[in-house]
């Protein structure tokens, strides 16, 4: 299908405040005019609001309140002027929409904030100013737009977010055309420009940002028995590597496993762009530190890579080190950290299956400055990683057929579900091979079912921490 021929669907009529009415062009234009008026007021009377808050939640909330008051004041004056001329003021719903739109334009991502604030949205993909492809949690994919007046406005919106969010200001321009950023709600934004014909923005919303393994059992991501085994493995301080394809739920599972860590433990998380957010879960993780890699400045200095952060974490008295995603040369210091007293550490990695994880680790290690050969890498892996948990996805049909631009030839629509498909216990290394036991393997429906038994030493350790492998039961087919 030619996406360019898809007619944008307009704006949603249900959902959060911004989406409870059709956002017609007149309303959006009015919001842009109000934004300009507010910007002028801030320039001439900066004492009315102390900046736009940036990444500081308290300052941001104070600024939002001040700006909201400015917008309401402007609207009140306009209403008085309209009534003086015998005309009706704006409806209350339109006024509310205008206030929320102006706040979104100044503090968020403009019209994209409609979907970022919608809990039913999972992915947002923007190809230029005219169209945003929105994927919902139920698998539905719709096209909306336009979301900006021009590509220049779209770039300016992303550039503003890059300056305000994150631990340090990030550039987004022709010299630095790539951007990875965590938004205030925890969503992950990826953007590129200059290397594509139009600016492209991809936003991954994390709908399940504070959840447990029990919650994932309810979502059929894994079985109760496997959840108990993984919980015991976390408590027993087994080093766990979570693998899967893109959008398979690796970060979601990592958060759920981290929920099993005692609040007394000190956690250091290391990410290319902040995403996990364990440091913001103060009740669960009161002693958590989040570290984020940093790009070089305009002079080409000041870059701090993932590998350097992993090495730094070893001096931070961390009980556990969690690497959000293994992407390159940080693999060697990460494996060293796992095998040198940082038991119970975790990380995620892209792989097509659980066996392929070790090939990916070896490929990263050979590209690292240490240039480790395969045999040395395998010895390091065998001494560092205890379990590999692999996630997979499967498309399941909806109960009824629907129609729309993304239907499959009139057939039933499908929804994407995520599940644990395999768990491998690392046994050792034998030259170019990693020796493992697949203790949970894909069942008839792709979901993990018990397979080979755990090693006696592992089984004994898990019993101490509340899980007895001898009484585990097969998983039913969902």
Explain briefly what this protein structure is.
Helix content is 33%, strand content 20%.
Report what the structure shows:
The protein has 478 residues and is an alpha/beta fold. It has two domains: 3-204, 2-Layer Sandwich (Beta-Lactamase), CATH 3.30.450.380; 213-471, P-loop containing nucleotide triphosphate hydrolases (Rossmann fold), CATH 3.40.50. Helices cover 33% and strands 20% of the residues. It contains 13 helices and 15 strands. It has helices spanning 25-44, 57-84, 92-107, 113-116, 151-164, 213-218, 224-235, 250-258, 306-313, 331-339, 356-367, 374-384, 456-464, and strands spanning 121-127, 132-136, 141-144, 178-182, 188-192, 200-204, 240-244, 267-271, 288-292, 320-323, 346-350, 387-397, 414-430, 433-442, 448-450. It has a nine-stranded mixed sheet, sandwiched between helices. Strands 3-2-1-6-5-4 form a six-stranded antiparallel sheet, covered by helices on one side. Strand 5 (188-192) and strand 6 (200-204) form a beta hairpin. Helix 2 (57-84) packs antiparallel against helix 3, helix 9 (306-313) runs parallel beside helix 10 and helix 10 (331-339) packs across helix 12. The longest helix is centred in the first third of the chain and has 28 residues, at 57-84. The radius of gyration is 25 Å and the shape is elongated. Residues 1-7, 11-22, 51-58, 399-412 and 474-478 have low confidence and may be disordered.
């Amino acid at each position: 299908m030619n996406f360019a021929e898809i007619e944008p669907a307009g704006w949603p009529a249900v959902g959060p405040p911004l989406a409870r009415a059709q956002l017609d062009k007149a309303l959006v234009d009015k919001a842009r005019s109000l934004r300009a008026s507010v910007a002028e007021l801030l320039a001439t009377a900066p004492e009315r609001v102390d900046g736009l808050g940036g990444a500081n939640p308290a300052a941001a909330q104070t600024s939002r309140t001040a700006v909201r008051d400015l917008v309401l004041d402007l609207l009140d004056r306009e209403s008085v002027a309209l009534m003086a001329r015998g005309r009706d003021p704006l409806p209350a719903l339109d006024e509310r929409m205008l206030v929320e739109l102006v706040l979104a334009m100044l503090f968020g991502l403009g019209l994209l904030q409609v979907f970022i604030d919608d809990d039913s949205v999972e992915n947002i993909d923007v190809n230029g100013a005219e169209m945003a492809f929105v994927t919902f949690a139920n698998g539905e994919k719709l096209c909306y737009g336009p979301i900006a007046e021009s590509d220049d406005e779209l770039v300016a919106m992303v550039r503003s977010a890059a300056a305000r969010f994150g631990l340090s200001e990030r550039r987004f321009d022709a010299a630095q055309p790539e951007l990875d950023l965590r938004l205030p709600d925890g969503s992950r934004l990826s953007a590129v420009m200059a290397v594509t014909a139009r600016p492209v923005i991809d936003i991954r919303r994390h709908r399940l940002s504070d959840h447990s393994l029990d919650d994932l059992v309810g979502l059929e991501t894994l079985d109760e028995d496997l959840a108990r085994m993984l919980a015991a493995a976390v408590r027993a301080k087994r080093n766990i590597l979570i693998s899967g394809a893109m959008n398979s739920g690796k970060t979601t599972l990592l958060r759920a496993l981290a929920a099993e860590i005692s609040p007394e433990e000190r956690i250091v998380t290391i990410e290319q762009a902040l995403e996990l957010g364990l440091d913001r879960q103060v009740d669960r993780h009161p002693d958590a530190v989040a570290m984020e890699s940093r790009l070089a400045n305009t002079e080409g200095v000041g870059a701090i890579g993932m590998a350097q952060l992993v090495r730094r974490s070893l001096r931070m008295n961390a009980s556990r080190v969690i690497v959000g995603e293994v992407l390159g040369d940080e693999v060697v210091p990460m494996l060293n950290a796992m095998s040198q007293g940082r038991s119970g550490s975790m990380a995620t990695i892209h792989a097509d299956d659980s066996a392929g994880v070790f090939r990916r680790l070896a490929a990263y290690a050979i590209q690292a400055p240490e240039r480790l050969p395969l045999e040395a890498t395998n010895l390091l892996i065998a001494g560092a990683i205890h379990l590999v948990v692999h996630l997979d996805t499967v498309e399941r049909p909806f109960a009824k057929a629907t129609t729309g631009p993304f239907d499959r030839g009139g057939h039933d629509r499908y929804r994407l579900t995520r599940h644990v498909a395999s768990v491998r216990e690392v046994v050792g290394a034998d030259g170019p091979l990693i020796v493992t036991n697949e203790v949970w393997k894909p069942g008839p429906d792709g979901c993990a079912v018990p397979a080979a038994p755990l090693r006696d030493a592992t089984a004994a350790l898990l019993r101490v921490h509340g899980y007895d492998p001898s009484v585990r039961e097969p998983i039913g087919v969902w």
